[in-house]
Amino acid sequence: MNTFQFPEFSEGTKATLRFKNCQRFRDGPTNDEGWYMGHCRFSRLAPAWGEFYAVSGDSALLSAPSDWVVNADAPNTGLATHYLFYFKDETFECLADDWTLELPANLSLQRTASPPAELSR
Q: What is the spatial distance between Cα 112 and Cα 76, in angstroms, rounded to a whole number?
């Protein structure tokens, strides 16, 4: 957890981000420096690095990378959303029905996690 953005967490706190019915996913090599230099296909569209987005719009950007890992066992429910998350040194994308954030059992929050920002491409 980013303790600079969320001071209610202590340094080293980890959480688990789970995706329901993940149909495909990929880890991209773009880090924050590459994003600021425009090397990410969403660099000019996403408002900020290090955020969690639900991407909508032109599917050409979704299909552009060739390194997707496909989960043939995931049901195609027709509810899938393209999620995009910028980590410090890479990007993560997936097509899934939903997501949840799981915190360690010894933590409680006074507010709930925010849904990802909507990013139209």
A: 28
Distance of CA 88 to the CA centre of its chain: 12
pLDDT in tens, 94-117: 999 999 988 877 665 544 455 666
CB atoms within 10 A of CB 114: 8
C-beta neighbour count of 110 within 10 angstroms: 5
Give the pLDDT confidence score for residue 57 in this predicted structure.
Answer: 74
Sheet containing 69-70: give its strands across: 69-70, 24-28, 91-96, 81-86, 52-56, 117-120
Element (H, E) at 28: strand 24-28
